[in-house]
Specification:
Number of helices: 3
Structural class: alpha+beta
CATH superfamily: Neurotransmitter-gated ion-channel ligand-binding domain
Strand content: 25-35%
Radius of gyration: 21 Å
Oligomer: single chain
Number of domains: 1
CATH class: Mainly Beta
Largest sheet: 5 strands, antiparallel
CATH architecture: Distorted Sandwich
Number of strands: 5
Helix content: 10-25%
Shape: elongated
Distance between the termini: 42 Å
Order of helices and strands: HHEEEHEE
Length: 134
């Protein structure tokens, strides 16, 4: 059994070496670097004119719930989807190989790993799915 485990581990390592490494010069990598280079999401609302109103749409998608009668606890698990337009996260798709939409992990720009990720469009529309929070 130990020999089989070692053989499987070695085969996995050999296969991993054969996988191509993502190039740091791809259009999507360049896009992410350029978008996040000067992005300050912690301090300011994502509007260029401070008198503009930022509309945030929120959807709640219940996944399941549980009632523990003995502990007198109610557990409600849901996904929270938030969408808005971020005027600082825009780009010209022609400059990045016609990429009009991309996904980034939110902990790269928001400092949290509770988010599954952000989907961005070239017009600055953001979709964030919050799947686990406390």
């Amino acid at each position: 059994m130990l020999l089989l485990t070692v053989l499987v581990a070695c085969a996995s390592i050999i296969k991993a070496k054969d996988c191509p490494r993502p190039s740091s010069n791809t259009n999507e990598v360049r896009l992410h670097k350029n978008l996040l280079a000067t992005y300050e999401s912690y301090f300011y609302p994502p509007v260029k004119n401070c008198s503009d109103v930022l509309q945030v749409n929120i959807r709640i998608l219940p996944q399941y719930f549980k009632l523990d009668v003995h502990e007198e606890m109610f557990y409600f698990h849901m996904w929270l989807i938030m969408t808005w337009k971020d005027e600082y996260l825009t780009w010209d798709p022609k400059d990045y190989g016609d990429i009009a939409e991309t996904s980034i992990k939110s902990y790269l720009d928001m400092g949290s790993n509770d988010y599954s990720g952000r989907i961005l469009s070239s017009q600055g529309h953001c979709i964030v799915l919050l799947y686990e929070f406390h």
